[in-house]
């Protein structure tokens, strides 16, 4: 079994959260090496890859698809109140 751990991904829910809290969006983007929110297709492409033959020897993995956010997430999450 494999898993995907997505980062902040553009959706209606996230758009509403960012609209209500513009500072959080800025902080998250600043704290992500890619400096942006993922598009849903980027997460879907990771899932498709895991299902394909090129990932046939990948077992028991957690594929982090978050633009590098987990490298520095703890200080940022504290600043935004998580």
From TrEMBL:
Record-given protein name: SDR family oxidoreductase
- Signal sequence residues: none
Protein family per UniProt: Belongs to the short-chain dehydrogenases/reductases (SDR) family.
SUPFAM superfamilies membership: NAD(P)-binding Rossmann-fold domains
Q: Which residues form a coiled coil?
A: none
Q: Does the keyword Oxidoreductase apply?
A: yes
Asked whether the keyword Zinc is assigned, the reply is no
Lineage, top-rank taxon, reads Bacteria
Q: Which InterPro entries match?
A: NAD(P)-bd_dom_sf (IPR036291), SDR_fam (IPR002347)
User: Which terms are listed as keywords in the entry?
Assistant: Oxidoreductase
């Amino acid at each position: 079994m494999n898993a995907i751990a997505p980062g902040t991904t553009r959706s209606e829910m996230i758009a509403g959260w960012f609209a209500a809290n513009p500072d959080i969006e800025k902080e998250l983007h600043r704290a992500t090496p890619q400096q942006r929110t993922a598009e849903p297709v980027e997460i879907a492409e990771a899932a498709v890859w895991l299902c394909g033959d090129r990932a046939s020897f990948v077992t028991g993995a957690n594929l982090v698809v978050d633009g590098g956010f987990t490298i520095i997430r703890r200080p940022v999450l504290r600043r935004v109140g998580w």
